[in-house]
Design goal:
With 409 residues, the chain is an alpha/beta fold. The protein has 2 domains: 204 residues, Rossmann fold, CATH 3.40.50.300; 188 residues, P-loop containing nucleotide triphosphate hydrolases (Rossmann fold). The protein has 16 helices and 14 strands. It is globular and about 70 Å long. The protein starts with 9 loop residues before the first helix and ends with a helix.
């Protein structure tokens, strides 16, 4: 199967060729013809499967089929959970639409709104936005969504986890009822299915991996270690393996800052990326990481959405996520588009229950590897992990979903 056989037009084929891509990924093979046929889509795909191109390419072609004369209106809206992901999608639209006349823009918070207003006044065909900033524009009447022909919700599961459901409903209320809607999600929870039922009209299901599965191209390893020695083990692994471009996850913003400072003291260049960082700082850190100017990027779950590096070799869970589905999202940053990747989790006794929940979710036991010199002190007892009220509720909800899945297997 080639991109030409999928029915894509010549300007898109040229742009694809410029990027060096020759064969579509499974999600692209399935989704592109459906979108071109104007059907709604409910797609389940892990990160790194090429899903962004899976909706960007047919979206651009759909707009090309019916060019509008006169004033430029917003004809397509892409909603995403985070700034980084929004920027990544905008970059994809620019890359694949380079030989087409469409104008696009990205709207997210953390930056001044006035330049965005100026761009919208000039007229754009495609808007990529985070829900909060989009609602800001709607409230100020600086954007007109009455001409939207296609709505795309990317990483819908993450948007629900982040509490955006009410924002999404507000946006839906002002969009034209007659439109094409595409919903992409890495996991299919009951909440996602409920949202899909309310949004989509006779959708076609596209699923390239088992729901909640972890990519086969990723080698998953657990290193049991005492909590007090996690940073020491991380430094050991990076230095012994001569690793570069290591994405490390922590549970909290404070933890990300603390670990970054410790790694710098150990002679390992690192930067943190999380919600308390300015957008400029987040963008700079990600750029330096991609350019190999820093070896380690320490991130929280929310900030890491949209980190798209073709051959990211290592993802480290310095702390396991308390919401099991987040593990799938985290490790999906490596092993992308068929490349091999390694995901290591540094697990202390406090996190054993989290590990059990994750293994239930992905339906496999993760390989346990003991690193010489880092044997666990068995006398240490587990202590409660302070998650905060909302995250505790999320964890109970996640555990409940996991138990329900296991009962229904």
């Amino acid at each position: 199967m080639t991109f030409k056989e999928l029915g894509l037009i010549e300007p898109l084929l040229r742009a694809i060729k410029d990027q060096g891509y020759t064969k579509p990924t499974p999600i692209q093979q399935q989704a592109i013809p459906i979108v071109l046929n104007h059907n709604d889509v409910l797609a389940g795909a892990q990160t790194g499967t090429g899903k962004t191109a899976g909706f960007t390419l047919p979206l651009l072609q759909r707009l090309s089929e019916h060019p509008k004369k006169g004033k430029t209106h917003v004809r397509a809206l892409v909603l995403t959970p985070t700034r980084e992901l929004a920027a990544q999608i905008q970059e994809s639209i620019y890359t694949y639409g380079k030989y087409l006349p469409f104008k696009s823009t990205v709207l997210f918070g953390g930056v001044k709104i006035n330049p965005q207003i100026v761009t919208l006044r000039k007229g754009v065909d495609i808007v990529v936005a985070t829900p909060g900033r989009l609602l800001d524009h709607i409230s100020q009447k600086t954007i007109d969504l009455s001409h939207v022909e296609c709505l795309i919700l990317d990483e819908a599961d993450r948007m629900l986890d982040m509490g955006f459901i009410n924002d999404i409903k507000k946006v839906l209320n002002i969009l034209p009822k007659k439109r094409q809607t595409l919903l992409f999600s890495a996991t299919f929870s009951k909440d996602i299915k409920k949202l899909a039922d309310s949004l989509l009209d006779k959708p076609q299901l596209v699923e390239v991996a088992r729901s909640n599965a972890s990519a086969k191209s990723i080698k998953q390893i657990v290193h049991h270690v005492d909590k007090s020695r996690k940073r020491e083990l991380l430094t050991h692994l990076i230095n012994m393996g001569k690793w570069t471009q290591v994405l490390v996850f922590t549970r909290t913003k404070h933890g990300a800052n603390k670990l970054t400072a410790q790694l710098d003291k150990d002679g390992i260049s690192a930067a943190a990326i999380h919600g308390n960082k300015s957008q400029a700082a987040r963008t700079r850190a990600l750029k330096e990481f991609k350019q190999n100017k820093i070896r380690v990027l320490v991130a929280t779950d929310i900030a890491a959405r949209g980190i798209d590096i073709d051959q990211l070799p290592h993802v480290i869970n310095f702390e396991l996520p308390n919401v099991s589905e987040d593990y799938v999202h985290r490790i999906g940053r490596t092993g992308r588009a068929g490349n091999k990747g390694v995901a290591c989790s540094l697990v202390c006794v406090d996190e054993f229950e989290f590990l059990k929940d994750i293994e239930k979710l992905i339906k496999k036991n993760i390989e346990k590897v003991t690193v010489a010199g880092f044997a666990v002190d068995r006398s240490i007892k587990a202590e409660p992990i302070n998650l905060g009220g909302n995250r505790q509720k999320q964890q109970r909800s996640s555990n409940s979903r996991n138990r329900s899945r296991n009962r229904n297997k």
